[in-house]
Amino acid sequence: MAFRGRKGPSLSLAIAVGAALALGSGTSLAQDEEKPYEIRDGKVDQGTYNGFRRYHASCHTCHGPDGLGSSYAPSLVDSLKTMSYEDFAEVVINGRENLAAGQEKVMPGFGMVNDVAMYIDDIYGYLQARADGVLGRGRPERF
Ligand code: HEC
């Protein structure tokens, strides 16, 4: 992916929101071995289930069902194979525009959209489980 410019005020918003989310989430994403989701017998925890719901409310129109991508926006299942939580949160909060080479693709910023901003960790957890290959397509069951 191309380098993306960072804007001062929105970046500090991202840091503020990110710090608040990290404090509130109760799980430390900084530890590599700790996954941002829990799956037992094919069933997911409440947060991952919520992430599925939020993803399909706000993201799937562009990024495709189950995170698989579309002709307009990339597969987030693929993106999260390499993308860090910090980079993910930064793009979701601030958005990104790709106007290169005649393309006009816009990733809207969701920093002001509470239904997304408050649940970034859940959306991330759901997509990371998909990226790790431990969660299939469709609506998961909760344990
Ligand atoms: C209006 C369409 C649209 C919606 C809705 C949308 N996105 Fe995007 N998103 C895009 C486009 C287009 C790109 C690629 C931008 C680029 O090429 O730089 C993108 C890029 C991204 C990236 C960076 C991927 C990478 O590999 O660099 C992430 C992460 C992302 N979106 C997450 C989300 C999440 C989470 C949601 C829902 C909360 C969401 N997007 C909703 C259009 C959208």
From TrEMBL:
Coiled-coil ranges from the UniProt annotation: none
Keywords: Heme, Iron, Metal-binding, Signal
Cytochrome c domain mapped to chain residues: 46-131
Family annotation (Pfam families): Cytochrome_CBB3
Name by which UniProt lists this protein: C-type cytochrome
PROSITE patterns found in the cross-reference section: CYTC
Molecular function GO terms recorded: electron transfer activity; heme binding; metal ion binding
Signal peptide: 1-30
Family matches, as InterPro entries: Cyt_c-like_dom, Cyt_c-like_dom_sf
